[in-house]
Design the sequence.
């Protein structure tokens, strides 16, 4: 009887440790999502400000538009991914 109780105790400890590891992994995942979203928003903001500078509107117009489109797509992708993960 003592041996089976010892096994159950070890199993409970193992399960508790696994749950703690899962919680840590979830917290890290949330932090990475938040960092990614902040990066996407900040990057989009920087490119919008950069695109407003009048000196660059003529020479690099297509480049700026392309980069802005990519940044907008990244932001939308990050928001959709975040929304799907919350459900």
Sequence:
């Amino acid at each position: 009887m003592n041996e089976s109780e010892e096994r159950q105790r070890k199993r409970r400890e193992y399960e508790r440790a696994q749950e703690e590891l899962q919680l840590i992994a979830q917290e890290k995942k949330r932090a990475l999502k938040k960092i990614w979203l902040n990066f996407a928003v900040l990057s989009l903001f920087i490119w919008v400000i950069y695109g407003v500078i009048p000196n660059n509107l003529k020479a690099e117009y297509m480049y700026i538009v392309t980069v802005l489109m990519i940044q907008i797509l990244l932001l939308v992708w990050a928001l959709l991914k975040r929304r799907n993960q919350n459900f």
